[in-house]
Write a structure and sequence with these properties.
267 residues; mainly alpha; two-stranded antiparallel ribbon; 12 helices; transmembrane helix
Length: 267
């Protein structure tokens, strides 16, 4: 007697979803340009600006300047990764990959879960590589603070998944996603990531999307205290940092919803 089986059941299982995630993760990792900007460039920036300067060992909060710099550049690398992954996923859907998947047993929800898992994994890569570089150079923080900054850095990259998705939904072009990741350089500068800001630039920077996630990732190290070229420069209360992160997350998420609704209406 033959037992009827559902050919879709096995494909919907965790094994095949896990295999799809692993294959797509390897595909993105093999993308030399993507890996360079997400992993190699942030690591090089840290080794130059955070580990080799005369002031790298100077104290900041419960650590030193090298750790302060490492956290910010890791936030930049993680945001680059999620922006690139989400933007590429949106382009894949718009360019027909979604229709191809509809012919298989993989539901659309599983595709979203897979892309989310890959985005988090790609965001974790520069964070882990940079923190390893910090361990083997001059970065210094208590172990508990170190673990907290790693977790907050990875979590802080999630708003930029919405940012990348919004760009991908707006423009059917890989160049647009590339421009979106390039814009992160300017946003990171204004976000107090690459060098200490003060005065008008700091006042402007507090309203930019990278400022909140960088300040949040640094919070276990500095407790909100700001650093300038001349030393301490005031502090950011936690509520203000969280408000920045929440506000920009909502802005990017609403943009995604509106752009998706526009795309559906056009059909």
């Amino acid at each position: 007697m033959t037992v009827a089986t559902n050919p879709r059941a096995h494909v919907r299982g965790g094994y095949d979803l896990g295999r799809y995630i692993a294959m797509d993760f390897r595909r993105n990792l093999r993308n030399v340009g993507n890996s360079f900007f997400v992993i190699v460039l942030p690591t090089a920036l840290f080794l130059f600006f955070g580990a080799s300067m005369d002031w790298s060992g100077e104290p900041v909060g419960v650590g030193n300047v090298s750790a302060w710099t490492m956290i910010a550049i890791a936030s930049y690398g993680a945001a680059m990764a999620t922006t690139s992954m989400a933007g590429s996923a949106a382009l894949e859907i718009q360019q027909g990959w979604g229709r191809q998947l509809a012919l298989t047993a993989m539901p659309h929800g599983a595709f979203i879960v897979a892309k989310a898992a890959i985005a988090v994994a790609m965001a974790a890569l520069p964070v882990l590589v940079l923190n390893l570089a910090g361990v083997f150079t001059v970065a210094d923080m208590p172990p508990g603070v170190w673990l907290a900054t790693v977790a907050l850095t990875i979590a802080g990259s999630l708003p930029f998944a919405f940012y990348g998705l919004a760009i991908g939904l707006s423009f059917r072009s890989d160049a647009a996603v590339g421009a979106a990741t390039g814009l992160l350089v300017i946003l990171s500068f204004l976000g107090n990531a690459f060098m200490p800001l003060d005065g008008v630039l700091l006042d402007i920077g507090r309203f930019t999307p990278m400022y909140g996630i960088v300040a949040l990732a640094r919070y276990p190290l500095t407790d909100g205290d700001l650093v300038s070229m001349g030393g301490a420069a005031g502090s950011d209360p936690l509520w203000m940092v969280l408000t920045n992160v929440a506000a920009w997350t909502v802005v990017f998420a609403v943009a995604c919803l509106l752009l998706q609704r526009r795309r559906t209406t056009r059909r």
